[in-house]
Design goal:
Blueprint (H helix, E strand, L loop, with lengths): L1 E5 L2 E8 L3 E6 L20 E6 L17 H15 L5 E6 L1 H12 L4 E7 L8 H14 L3 H11 L3 H18 L14 E7 L3 H6 L3 H10 L5 E6 L6 H4 L1 H12 L1
Parallel strand pairs: 3-4, 3-5, 5-6, 6-7, 7-8
Antiparallel strand pairs: 1-2, 2-4
Length: 253
């Protein structure tokens, strides 16, 4: 097991394969284990990097997550890239990890070449989205499959991690709102926004959720594009694994 230190705490990471570094960033309440099988297909062409953000998976725990969680996690990823002296890295971020990926590209443009941001909320917290998320989160705690997922991602203390994440989301929506500290028009990296039209959670918020949210973002991006899969759920990259792989390889090349 490999670790690096950030904020005097240990962050778990692993690297497999060789070539251009390709960093995968996990979403809220998940860990890098969500990419264990999915990422293997990339190792023939890329040095695949998986990390667990602080408070998740095999990384050191936090008593509380900060309200500006996704920016804090971006600082962790940037610290890792600089620790390893990596530049022009490709990043694939999923759900909350997509927000982190874009923050990394905004705050450390010299480190990033291309970003795929999959199945995420957009530029800022949406009241209806947060309300649905909290309801869904409450239900998941009683759902056997969700509990198994959380346990696999984190271990026996998964309930505290889910609680910390929920608390951070609530505080962020009230205190901060915006996911990014800089305007996304500042993005220098080439960006691909992806999602699934079968994403039941996102489309429960609005019937044209991705089309509207991503469309608004693309008006501000000079080097951005969007791809929505006709089927699949949340996240699109996992529920459309084969198609997403082909799309991502084409984009990164």
């Amino acid at each position: 097991m490999s670790y690096f230190t950030f904020d005097n705490k240990k962050i778990y990471y692993e690297e497999n394969g060789c070539g251009t570094p390709l960093l995968f960033l996990h979403g809220n309440t998940a860990s890098s284990k969500m990419f264990t099988d999915f990422s293997k297909r990339y190792t023939d062409s890329y040095k695949v990097i998986l990390i667990d953000f602080l408070g998740h998976g095999r990384s050191e725990r936090l008593s509380e997550f900060p309200a500006d969680l996704w920016f804090y996690e971006a600082q962790q990823a940037i610290a890792f890239l600089r620790h390893k002296h990596y530049d022009k890295v490709n990043i694939i971020g999923c759900s909350g990890g997509a927000i982190v990926a874009l923050n990394v590209a905004l705050e450390a443009s010299e480190c990033v070449d291309k970003v795929i941001a999959d199945s995420f909320e957009g530029e800022k917290a949406d009241e209806a989205f947060v309300k649905n998320l909290l309801s869904d989160r409450s239900s998941s705690l009683e759902d056997t499959n969700a509990r198994v997922f959380y346990s696999y991602m984190h271990g026996d203390d998964w309930e505290q991690i889910v609680h910390n994440d929920t608390s951070a989301i609530i505080r962020h929506s009230k205190e901060i709102v915006n996911f990014f500290h800089k305007p996304i028009s500042d993005l220098k990296a080439k960006v691909l926004l992806t999602g699934s039209k079968g994403d039941k959670f996102m489309y429960s918020v609005a019937h044209d959720y991705y089309e509207k949210v991503y469309g608004n973002m693309l008006e501000k991006l000079t080097n951005g594009s969007m791809h929505l899969f006709e089927s699949g759920d949340h996240p699109a990259m996992i529920t459309n694994a084969d198609k997403f792989y082909d799309l991502s390889i084409d984009f990164m090349r």
